[in-house]
Design goal:
Strand order of the largest sheet: 4-1-5-6-7-8
Protein name: Exostosin GT47 domain-containing protein
GO molecular function: glycosyltransferase activity
Subcellular location: Golgi apparatus membrane
Number of strands: 13
Shape: globular
Number of helices: 13
Organism: Prunus armeniaca (Apricot)
InterPro entries: Exostosin, Exostosin_GT47
Helix content: 25-40%
Strand content: 5-15%
Length: 382
């Protein structure tokens, strides 16, 4: 496998960062795009205050330094188009002129299709990585306008592979889920092993925990907050409260709650997936899912086929979702220990190592994506 990185004009990636304070309508992204998208360092050993929407930037930095990168397109088996489409669409959420909103996406497609390497396989060996969820890229002519672009509906992009933090569960044939970035970006396998061992030994006084704010589109969150607040076995961090809002923005506070819990409730929010799932894996806290589309239909390259080996599933429409504590109490301590061990083993492949760590020996999220994608492309071509 060898990967060629297209030298795109700056307007498609790094040029967008010149206006970093405008990249998100809710957040000044300037602190978050520092250090190749890792954000601000919070301690030594690879810890950063990483924003959940910087995966496309981190992925780019990792592939730039990847040992499988080739600078000769004639030798490449994969062609990477490092477009920061997530930053672009979030910058244009309030743009009412749809032509202006889509202009950069269309320009990118025109640029790529004009390259000789596109025509070789009509883009089937090309891919991009996107750091926002799929609904932000699939606006159709008759859809109600939520500020989305239409990048993934462009015919040329449908020929490519798209790596994305949340794929379309039913229509995402060319979409492959990649992890949200969490806070840990180690440079060595020793740093990784030290953290895994720490999470193996940490004392967990709480049966379960929930970190999150109420969401209008996800009534189940209100139910979680109620159940957790009424239980002495649950640790609640309500991100909708004044005190919780500040704590939820602190990586140390989030990881503290999760590392003190045996199970972490992963409720859908504005979309099916959430970064919290990957924070909970990092903390060795067994995720409890309430929709199959929060993980099982998303991250097939990364998660074991045997769901019960590392997670708990409670259908959000079932009676069991009304008595979460009771359901979790049924799981034996022996089973919990086995599940946690499985979970700790997943941490390396769900982590983005530091972009400068070219020979960490970890086998991180980017390594998994490139290997899996090469197999997929080879299958399609042959």
């Amino acid at each position: 496998m060898s990967v060629y990185v297209y030298p795109l004009p700056a307007k498609f990636n790094l040029g967008l960062l010149r206006h970093c304070h405008k990249l998100n309508v809710h957040t000044d992204m300037c602190p978050h795009v520092a250090n190749s998208g890792l954000g601000q360092p919070i301690s030594s050993g690879g810890w950063f205050a990483t924003n959940q929407f910087t995966a496309e930037m981190i992925f780019h930095a990792r592939v730039e330094n990847h040992p499988c990168r080739t600078r000769d397109p004639a030798r490449a088996s994969l062609f990477y188009v490092p477009y920061y489409g997530g930053f672009h669409v979030s910058n244009k959420f309030r743009e009412r002129n749809l032509t202006a909103r889509d202009e950069l996406d269309v320009s990118l497609v025109d640029f790529i299709q004009a390259q000789p390497w596109w025509n070789k396989r009509n883009g089937q060996d090309h891919f991009m990585a996107l750091g926002r969820v799929v609904r932000d890229f699939i606006r159709r002519p008759n859809d109600r306008d939520y500020g989305a672009g239409r990048l993934l509906n462009l015919p040329a992009v449908k020929n490519m592979s798209v790596l994305i933090i949340e794929r379309h569960p039913w229509q995402g044939k060319n979409q492959y889920g990649i992890p949200y970035p969490s806070y840990f970006h180690p440079s060595t396998s020793q740093e990784m092993a030290w953290w895994q061992n720490k999470m193996r030994k940490v004392r967990r006084p709480y049966l379960f925990s929930f970190i999150g704010a109420p969401r209008r589109k996800a009534a189940i969150r209100k139910e979680f907050i109620r159940q957790c607040g009424e239980s002495t076995r649950c640790k609640l961090l309500n991100c909708g409260s004044p005190d919780g809002r500040s704590k939820c923005g602190e990586p140390s506070e989030v990881l503290k709650v999760m590392s003190e819990s045996r199970f972490c409730l992963q409720a859908p929010g504005d979309s099916f997936t959430r970064r919290s799932t990957f924070d909970s894996v990092l903390a060795g806290c067994i995720p409890v899912f309430f929709s199959p589309h929060s993980a099982y239909t998303q991250y097939g390259w990364y998660l074991p086929g045997e769901r019960s080996s590392y997670s708990v599933f409670i259908d959000q429409k079932s009676k069991a979702s009304e008595r979460i504590e009771e359901e979790l109490m049924k799981i034996s301590s022996k089973k919990v220990k086995m599940m946690r061990e499985k979970l700790l083993g997943l941490i390396p492949s769900l982590t983005y190592t530091h972009p400068n760590a070219t020979n960490s020996g970890i086998g991180d999220a980017v390594d998994v994506a490139l290997v899996s994608l090469a197999k997929q492309v080879n299958k399609v071509i042959n």
